[in-house]
Design goal:
Pathway: Amino-acid biosynthesis; L-histidine biosynthesis; L-histidine from 5-phospho-alpha-D-ribose 1-diphosphate: step 2/9; Amino-acid biosynthesis; L-histidine biosynthesis; L-histidine from 5-phospho-alpha-D-ribose 1-diphosphate: step 3/9. This protein is an alpha+beta fold and 129 residues long. It has one domain: Ubiquitin-like (UB roll) (Roll), CATH 3.10.20. The protein is 19% helix and 29% strand. It is built from 2 helices and 6 strands. It has a 4-stranded mixed β-sheet with strand order 2-1-6-5. Strand 1 and strand 2 form a beta hairpin. The longest helix has 14 residues. It is globular, with a radius of gyration of 17 Å. It starts with 20 loop residues before the first strand and ends with a helix.
């Protein structure tokens, strides 16, 4: 995997009080949000060098190459920074499940919703076709 071209050094990013940067991970093809994780500078640099998503595990306090034990790697397609430069969006090609539960996404449990909004969005889609 080729090294990723870097337009923004880690030192330019605004980190949380724990020295970490939140990363929202999105499926490059579907746009589905897969997970949220965190990076420190070493994880950021490893991701850029290998083209595979590497995070910092807050519970284990060590680098975590996504897929290293499961084989469910995330290959970087592009990285974006938000307007405050304090959150990263990673668009990835996900191999297998992103979630440790075996689900494709970690966001599989709906806890709230608006049925009217869902009906209207369905209607809008039907009207466009």
């Amino acid at each position: 995997m080729p090294q990723i071209t870097l337009d923004l050094p880690f030192s330019s990013l605004k980190l949380g009080p724990d020295g970490l940067l939140p990363v929202v991970v999105q499926d490059n093809r579907s746009g589905e949000v897969l997970m949220v994780a965190y990076m420190n500078e070493k994880a950021y640099n490893a991701t850029l060098q290998t083209g595979r998503m590497t995070y910092y595990s807050r519970s284990r306090k060590e680098l975590w190459l996504k897929g290293d034990t499961s084989g469910h790697y995330q290959y970087v397609r592009s990285l974006f920074i938000d307007c405050d430069q304090d959150t990263l969006l990673a668009k990835v090609d996900q191999i297998g499940a992103a979630c440790h539960t075996g689900n494709h996404s970690c966001f599989f449990t709906k806890i709230a919703g608006n049925s009217l909004a869902e009906e209207k969005s369905g209607t809008a889609c039907e009207e466009m076709n």
